[in-house]
Amino acid sequence: MGEMTFDSFVIPVKMGIQSSIKDNLFPIFCVDCGREGETWCENCRRQFDVAGILFCPVCSLQADNGKTHSTCARANWHLDGLVSLVPYRDNSPLTRLIKQLKYHFVSDNADWMADILRIWLAFNSERVKFIFNNRIIVPVPLHRRRLRERGFNQAELIAEALRLVLSERGIEDNVSTKLERSRYTSAQARLHEEAREKNMLSAFKWPDQEVCPRAVVLVDDVYTTGATMNMAAGALKAVGAQSVWGFTLLRG
Ligand SMILES: [Zn+2]
Ligand SMILES: [Zn+2]
């Protein structure tokens, strides 16, 4: 009993000292209102509109739960649907936070991520259940060289946050980081269309010795042309995935 009191007294004090030293060395300011203390303060997060985007990933028009229209699913299109949180806007707090994450190597203080996903889930709970139940969450991998430079994969952080908030809603999806990026896709322009398609598909690889999950949610920070996500989906389907949906925070 005495020991418990001791522990519960010591731990908060220790944490308090550590975090105050850290805040003094690297003060954190809210990306939105500029107030000191949090990367994105709770007050600003609450005011952020995260209704979610459910558009066809090919034509960007309204679609059922973000499912690819059957008329849009041409040959070599592998992504079955896409869910994104907000449109890409240069000055939106979410865009700036992701840039901070990717280019300034700020991987801590990413608590905002799970929180913003919670707000979005509150709007979309039923839909999301339908889309994300019984899937394996797979972050779009970085090339090894890029991963070394950055020290972490931002898509993995998002995948982990997504897993956490889904589990809070009773959806117990696991994260798998088995997908590999085999090489940079360069010099695409010089290749003929067929060769280009081959080149794109071989940019990602699921390890031969591993069984590929049948139903996958591919996670990335931003969806623009869809080329990357589509080639990752293609690589998964080539080794047995039946259904691959995309999930991104931003949509260009
Ligand atoms: Zn703020
Ligand atoms: Zn469409």
UniProtKB/TrEMBL annotation:
CDD domains: PRTases_typeI. InterPro entries: ComF/GntX_DNA_util-trans, PRTase-like, PRTase_dom. Signal peptide: none annotated. Transmembrane segments: none annotated. Belongs to the ComF/GntX family. This is Phosphoribosyltransferase domain-containing protein. It comes from Candidatus Magasanikbacteria bacterium RIFOXYC2_FULL_42_28.
